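Morning F.,

Quick status update on the modeling queue. The single chain you submitted on Monday has been processed. Sequence for confirmation:
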Amino acid sequence: LRGEGSVSGILREYGTDRPLGGVKVLLAAGVPGPGTTVETATLPDGSFLLERVPNFDAWTLRASVAAPLAEVEVAGIEVLETRLTDLGVVYATPGFTVPGIVVDEAGAAVPGASVRAIRARPAQVRMDFLRVIRELPRQTPAVESAVTGGDGRFVLKKLVPGTYEFEVSKKGFRLTVERGVMVGPDAGSREVRIVLGAGNSLKGRVLRKSEGPIEGLRIVAIRQPSNDAEIFNILEKCMAVTDERGEFLVEGLGLGTHAVGVEVEGEPYHLALNVEIPRDGYLEIVIEGDAWLEGRVTGPDGAPVPLAQVYVTNFRNDTPLIAFAVTGEDGKYRINGLRSGPVQLFMVQAEGFGTYPEDFMAVLRGGGSELFLKPGANEKSVALGAGGIVKGKVVEEGTGEPVEGVRVSLVTPAALFGGTRSDTTDGAGAFEITSAPLGGALLVASKDGWVQPGLTPATMMGAGMRMAMGGAKDDPGEGMSIVVEGPGEVVERTLELTRGGVLRGTVLDPAGTPLAGARVSVEFASTPGGPMRMLSSFMPLGEPRTTGSDGTFEAPSPPAGQKVVLLAKAAGFLDTRSDPVETRGSEGVSGIVVKLRQGAVLRGKVTSGGKPLEGALVRMTTMEGENDWGRQWRLRSATPHRTQADGTWRIENVETGRLVVQVSHPKCISASRDGLEAADGKVLEVDVELAAGGAVSGRVVGPDGRPFA
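Structure tokens below.
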């Protein structure tokens, strides 16, 4: 059948290389996607083969191994038509136990809370705007879950080493995600403490100006991203479903500015922006659209392309349009409920083919597509060209020996709209990347403990700028920069890696005592802003490390000559960076010290008419520069804190410096206090009296004197 490939690999026990036979192996892909599973079992030598697997770029493989090993999970597997995706050796590691406790803001245990462990995604998977669109209205899959007991405690079992996000939910509380939880052999000795704040609810209704259902629609509410990076890190999703009247109730929301979306099958996501929580009254989301778009996607031979992904987006006004459809077996698609007018981005992707439009960067530089929707029916059929092929091998610098298990990725600014294309080298060091888009790209090779000579933030940014500006038209023939000049073209490269060094140091608490269990990661000392900053996230820096019982750590070093800092995080302290360190290649650097800081504590009482005011919102930000507009923007996007019944509030671990505090309440006039000086370890008292607000009412009439609605 058209659109099917296969997946193979070998399952072994980590540390012993013992083959694991008779293990159930499953490939799963939900919706959006094939919405199916493919199963098999490993042979005595640990090998497995999954056949007749539909084209898709985000399959998840799971292998159910016996204890004490943990279930194996490999996400982001690409399957291409008529091709074999070889995963090489897949290792099963021992599963570790992670204890924890969930408490409320007063420190009391929270029984019956649901705890879900979500495996953190690498940047190559996370930094994909189109994936965000597909997954927005769906809960992120978990690898393990538990429910807290009467004492608020929980235990997550059989978690493989790595970085996780722990999602915690309980009726009446805010949905909370504890990010960057490191799991290793000593995880059982440290209890993860998660604090739940009070939750808020949002009532609303969905209305239609055109025919269609209003019952059973999926509602998703997220904290509205305040910058580009936050778009790619959406985890806190509160969901609901509309009833027969189109009404919904979303619970578990935090305070602040939210975006609320409605998913209607076959139509765009309908988004309501700048929804402030808490909110009085109903939120009404009106579904309206006077146009629809349909068409057919074919390949170079004119045959239909099933499972092609069609995107229509427009962010040029306050009501964004985000539409997504998948072609059927006949290659056809249809999207209803669109608004007439210009379309900012029209894009089609399918595994095994090139992207439409072929010169995607030209569309981004020009600021829009050529598609203009008129009221009623619109037709847009697309013929996809053959995707480029980038293949070659990875060898050790100096010896020429092949390096197995290297992740080779194609990185371009267009990767933010579709993700990176990648492959993993086999025993001969060989790799092959298909569906490569036309134009320039950078080949990035990553493996823990190894570095790619010549790959630095400067070279990556330079390559990114050249690609964004049009770049070279001809492939240079060597090096990490490549150019796919035409559909179906094959580009070959040999990449070199060298053994990397190690950054060694110690994390101390504010008193100078070594601190165990701190999370340490490597960052470049300076990075650009905007899209180039996002592109720099594809630079491989290795997994974060956890300090041992003596507070020491060893982190992989980037190539020699780079200025880096070590970022240490630990509960109860401010995130702290070391002084800049210059890397020395395989020689490594020792003696790095990161001394954590105890931030300031802000607290106070809000009153109105001399009486305690419950439910007031307290926001704070730094007084960077003298730009009042900038401060107002930061205050608007800051996470608010709510006053208790006695009017009191408290914010811990505040960054030191000059601050501005803003207090608001629906029934009062807002007030601000600026020029407040916060110091490490000190308590700053900020009491605020709010004046009662008045009410304005009136009537709007038209030129004829009649009421105007």
